[in-house]
Amino acid sequence: MDHLDKLENQSIYIIREAYKQFKDIAILWSIGKDSTTLMWLVRKAFYGKVPFPALHIDTSYKFNEIYEFRDEWAKKWGIKLVVGKNDQSLSSGMGPDQQDKLSCCGQLKTDALKQTIDKYRYKALLLGIRRDEHGIRAKERVFSPRNKQFQWDYKDQPPELWDQFKNKQQGEQHIRVHPLLHWTELDIWMYIHRENIPIVSLYFARDGKRYRSIGCEPCCAPVDSNADTVDKMVEELKTTKVSERSGRAQDKERAYMMQKLRALGYM
Amino acid sequence: MIVVLAIDALEYTLVEEFNCKNLKQRFYGKTNIKEFSEPKTMVLWSSFMTGKNMEKEIVARGDKEMWNTELDMEDTFFRSFKNPKIIDLPGFSYIKEQHEQERRMLKYYFDAQSEEEKKNIRTEYNNLAFLHHRRIKQEFSTALQGDYDFVLGYFSVADVIGHLNFGNGSMMKLIYRDLDEIAGTINHTLIVLSDHGMERVGIFGDHSNYGFWSTDLKDLGNPKITDFADMIKEIPEVN
Amino acid sequence: MNNENLKFVIVGHVDHGKSTLIGRLLYDTGSLPEGKIEEIKQICESLGREIEFGYVMDHLEEERDQGITIDTAQTFFNTEKRNYVIIDAPGHVEFVKNMISGASQAEAAVLIVDVEEGVREQTKRHAYILGMLGLSQVIVVVNKMDLINYDQKRFESVKKDILKFLLDISIKPSYVIPISAKKGDFIANKISKMNWYDGPTLLEALDIFKTKESANYKPLRFVVQDIYNFDKRIIVGRVESGVIKKGDKIKILPSGEETRVKSIEEYLKNVTEAEAGKSIGITTEDKLFIDRGNVVIHNGDMPAVTDRIMANVFWMDRTPFKIGERLMFRCSTQEVSCEVEKINRVINSSTLELIAEDATEIKNREVANIVIRTDKPVVVENFNKIEELGRFVLGREDTCAGGIITEPEQ
Ligand SMILES: Nc1nc2c(ncn2[C@@H]2O[C@H](COP(=O)(O)OP(=O)(O)OP(=O)(O)O)[C@@H](O)[C@H]2O)c(=O)[nH]1
Ligand SMILES: [Zn+2]
């Protein structure tokens, strides 16, 4: 088995464990490359079926391409789609230009997800996060409990060894399952390439720009790139070190920081 | 000689994490600054040297003008010393041009459009702060050799660098080690004090709602920043 | 260079130089992102300090926090021979659970010992865990040789101590190498100051190690994970060792029923066999009652089917275990309730002192040799024969202990 085979087989094992352990499970499908790769692996694990719902958190500010892609492939793959929206916030006018981006994301993404989990009483969620995405994620486990407030106590997690994952979930907790934890961004692209996984066109360069991560249209800045095929993307990744999330996350932090510094009289 | 190491934004949790023994001394802890609505540098240091809550007065000057505050020796506890030396303290002997330039660049950074530009400004900003730090270090060490009965050295590096780099642990670790070494060179009665600490916002740093203190004299518990004026006055003069 | 990866951990007592060594390995093999060292140098210079390699790790950690793709839980470098992955295993006592989680994935280990301090508490605990996890490829590096002027006598005396202690726990290190992580001596480069030492450098020694050999050549163990009935009945699971082929005559344990493999099922693929490591499905000629936790084997080499197991366990939960308490025994996908019939010995994992014999309690970070009685028979193996069925965890709500089977009793 080569490197990608190993990753694939390990992920399938994890997905099957999660499905066995938790009845009320769903996959969080942001339509991004990671969660779509995860969806692909789910279909492999279950011989073409997706035996649980796919949750899509809709901020209503997503790129049009995302909605189109979602509806097209949900249909083709026979996916039961559950769309979560924070209707209350949206109807009260929340949006990225309404308030700072931090509260916008908080309400339209995090709160919407909380509400949806509450409503459908999911006990476990499959997520496409990777260890190499962000510092704190290095400490993530494959099966990671979250309390109702989504808090994660990373200092005192049960050990996870020999593929024995946490399989009990208590009270209000839900378990986040991370079958792609060991993959890198490059692995994802190489796998997409090998398997020919359909991917939202936003990732591919148009007029010298492409999106490295996708989310809400107003909050995503494209990066300079000429990679208009998966091939070129893999090549580009092997040679660049630009932060994947830097665009999105840092913008938010900057906005918050500016507000704070102003309050402290610095500017 | 009594020495006060006044460190802006020295964060209790980092002193612990990096185990800065000299900064900790025998007794150390957090200060209580809950009486202030915001942990503002100028408000806190002014309150420290006068021994009373100066929030209203300082805030009334407005965000721009407040940085120009220059209190009179007579209004501070420094007057109880014969020959005090106060280096760069906000509200007293603050080196305005330097710190004004730092604030200006902080604003440039957030106003800058491109990543490239931001990167350059950050580098320039850091250099400016480090350069000043070396200068104050020098001045402070000279003062320690001098004929003073009270020396206060104000070190802004942790705050200034922290605002744009607090998430850069290795940079902060190096700064804390450096400050710890400075504390280690002082062979007099020493009080380490910060106005507030700092907490992380991604790569950036925001003020936290408590300060830091330490001394070899006695356990102060959870003191207010205004408690120090009286306390320091009452330290018996040794040597 | 071929495409194989060797995963290893660096363990040792706090401050003996783990971070410095990792920084040095990355630097000497040219694996640091461009400009990184310069950046750290620059901060050091701004403050008028000398550069320390330990900062490299802090710095990488930060980079990643800024979103740059560097994984310090898994740090990579390569030599001419192959790729290496350093698995992060934090040194502090509180992190022993993380250390175990990390080390359980490693194929080799480097144990670092400060030449001035010698063997310390965590040196022992970590070494013990390595032994328990069955890591047989171990290198000892004796660090900070520069501090003692590369003195051979002191090195030899520390080496003697270490070897004696390792012998007690049956670890035979392949090499004991004097190094200075700080100066870079005997990491990648030899230096003349230690011409009394004629062994390999650390990198040379690592290159001699073998990557985990494929389990394809071991007897077949296909462990059942689940039964799916989407379009047809498929028995899914993972081939833990051996190779399973269409048409193979197979036996299901623990029932002992026999049948043949009708097909190997992989989505959208036409395959007739599956090797070790594959998560696949099978269908069988006869419709047997098969359930999660069953083990499919070829006739011949049998694992043990038993309800009594002798094992060494490492307790890692704050709440001690008291005899009489029921626990879950989980080995591969088998999960049964069990009790501990006897605690033969309890050992302090840091001093390795015997705490008690025929004990009634096992506390946090203690190691014990115990006899487990499971409620139902399980299919297990001596750890040295087939790891995947020779290791298990014990749990309450969460995993409390990891263990390896020394003797599956028939
Ligand atoms: N002289 C000398 N000092 C060293 C050497 N290796 C490490 N050190 C020093 O030893 C101290 C501890 O080194 P680290 O690499 O931080 O130790 P560690 O084992 O990673 O410790 P933790 O990160 O706390 O687990 C640092 O001050 C290093 O500079 C060496 O080869 N020679
Ligand atoms: Zn301040």
UniProtKB/TrEMBL annotation, chain A:
Keywords of the record: ATP-binding, Nucleotide-binding, Nucleotidyltransferase, Transferase
Residue ranges of domain Phosphoadenosine phosphosulphate reductase in the record: 25-221
Keyword Transferase attached: yes
Gene Ontology biological process: sulfate assimilation
GO molecular function per UniProt: ATP binding; sulfate adenylyltransferase (ATP) activity
First-level EC class: transferase
Top-level taxon of origin: Archaea
Gene3D superfamilies with a match to the protein in the record: HUPs
Pfam families attached to this UniProt entry: PAPS_reduct
EC numbers for this chain: 2.7.7.4
This protein's record includes keyword Transferase: yes
Transmembrane stretches, start-end: none
Family affiliation: Belongs to the PAPS reductase family. CysD subfamily.
Protein name: Sulfate adenylyltransferase subunit 2
From TrEMBL, chain B:
Top-level taxon in the UniProt lineage: Archaea
InterPro entries, sorted: Alkaline_phosphatase_core_sf, Phosphodiest/P_Trfase
Protein's name according to its UniProt entry: Type I phosphodiesterase / nucleotide pyrophosphatase
Annotated organism of origin: Candidatus Methanoperedens nitratireducens
Lineage: Archaea, Methanobacteriati, Methanobacteriota, Stenosarchaea group, Methanomicrobia
UniProtKB/TrEMBL annotation, chain C:
Keyword annotations of the record: ATP-binding, GTP-binding, Nucleotide-binding, Nucleotidyltransferase, Transferase
Positions of the Tr-type G domain: 3-215
Gene Ontology terms describing biological process: sulfur compound metabolic process
EC number: 2.7.7.4
Stored Pfam families: GTP-eEF1A_C, GTP_EFTU, GTP_EFTU_D2
SUPFAM superfamilies linked: EF-Tu/eEF-1alpha/eIF2-gamma C-terminal domain (SSF50465), P-loop containing nucleoside triphosphate hydrolases (SSF52540), Translation proteins (SSF50447)
InterPro entries (alphabetical): EFTu-like_2 (IPR004161), GTP-eEF1A_C (IPR054696), P-loop_NTPase (IPR027417), SO4_adenylTrfase_lsu (IPR011779), T_Tr_GTP-bd_dom (IPR000795), TRAFAC_GTPase_members (IPR050100), Transl_B-barrel_sf (IPR009000), Transl_elong_EF1A/Init_IF2_C (IPR009001)
Gene Ontology MF annotations: ATP binding; GTP binding; GTPase activity; sulfate adenylyltransferase (ATP) activity
Annotated protein name in UniProt: sulfate adenylyltransferase
Species whose genome carries this gene: Candidatus Methanoperedens nitratireducens
